[in-house]
Specification:
The protein has 302 residues and is mainly alpha-helical. It has helices spanning 7-16, 20-25, 31-40, 44-52, 57-63, 69-76, 81-85, 93-98, 105-112, 117-127, 130-136, 139-146, 153-160, 165-176, 185-193, 197-205, 209-222, 232-242, 245-251, 257-264, 269-276, 281-291, 293-301. It is 67% helix and 0% strand. The chain is rod-shaped and about 110 Å long.
Length: 302
């Protein structure tokens, strides 16, 4: 594994007490070659340094200048996808979320459709107000929610009380084909309650569109879980039409960490490596030392 760091030879000169003559001789050689040559020449400092390189995190950081993201990247690019994934749990949430910027917006929306519904809803409500969500929601999705078997009929009837009586009467007339004789709203709601399943569904979908959205907004404000009854694609279409990628990525910070990591794992190795360069340097070096001593050996060997 070739990792070229200009200051490495200078560090070895100081640490091993090398003469200028030897310094010139060792130019272009790997760390391992220099340590072997010095150990063979009887330099005890070389033996000590060789032992420390596999146990001393700070020394590893210093000799390979791991605080420089470019040097981390050079190491990471020689790792497999599975090895790279081992670093993700160590990263800060903010750095993981920022890594989402390496995806196209289309890919982000595709992945967003796969997250648990509650987390998709949380993302949407970071981007839009509740009023905006319901206003932009396609009418077929509004109908889907209002007629869902997962929506308690009593909840709907309770919130229909906020709808003016004349619109309730129209609902009844659409189903019965007759003028509504009741003028009392509670009596009309009782009549709707007595409708069969198909009549009830027809009554709700026939509600005047503005009032239908008002009813839906009233329901979701009190019962946030109802947002999950809308199809994921309805939300992602809404995002695609109204928001740019930076806004979307910022909002996705509300998604749980495990889901964000699953997304980052879908990046190509080179882009995943760039994301991981933001990992705390000591965490990075310690992980190399504990889990990948073979990589350190390759670095030393040049």
């Amino acid at each position: 594994m070739a990792i070229v760091i200009d200051s490495t030879l200078s560090y070895l000169q100081t640490r091993l007490n090398l003469s200028l003559e030897k310094l010139e001789l060792y130019k272009g050689r790997s760390i391992n070659e220099i340590l072997e040559a010095e150990a063979a020449a009887g330099n005890p400092l070389a033996i000590e340094l060789a032992q420390e390189l596999t146990t001393n995190v700070n020394l590893l950081i210093e000799i390979f200048k791991l605080a420089d993201p470019n040097n981390k990247f050079m190491i990471l690019m020689n790792m497999s996808s599975q090895q790279l994934k081992e670093f993700l749990p160590l990263m800060e949430d903010e750095d993981l979320v920022q890594g989402l910027m390496y995806f196209t917006q289309d890919k982000l929306l595709s992945m967003l459709r796969e997250v648990p519904p509650e987390q998709l809803v949380n993302t949407i409500l970071e981007l839009f107000s509740q009023e905006e969500v319901i206003q932009m929601m396609p009418e077929d999705q509004i109908d889907k929610l209002l007629t869902s078997h997962d929506l308690d009929k009593n909840k709907v009837l309770q919130h229909l009380k906020s709808i003016p009586a004349e619109y309730i009467a129209q609902m009844i007339e659409t189903v019965t084909g007759k003028a509504c004789e009741d003028t009392d709203q509670l009596a009309m709601l009782g009549q709707i309650n007595d409708f069969g399943p198909l009549e009830y569904k027809d009554a709700l979908t026939s509600l005047q569109p503005t009032q239908k959205r008002q009813l839906t907004l009233s329901l979701v404000k009190e019962h946030k879980e109802l947002y999950q009854l809308f199809d994921p694609h309805a939300y992602t279409d809404m995002i695609n039409q109204n928001k740019q990628k930076p806004e979307l990525v910022k909002a996705m910070a509300v998604i749980e960490r495990d889901e964000i990591m699953k997304m980052i794992e879908q990046l190509p190795n080179d882009l995943m490596s760039i994301v991981i360069t933001q990992l705390d340097t000591e965490e990075f070096a310690d992980t190399l030392m504990k889990k990948h001593p073979e990589i350190i050996a390759e670095l030393i060997a040049g």
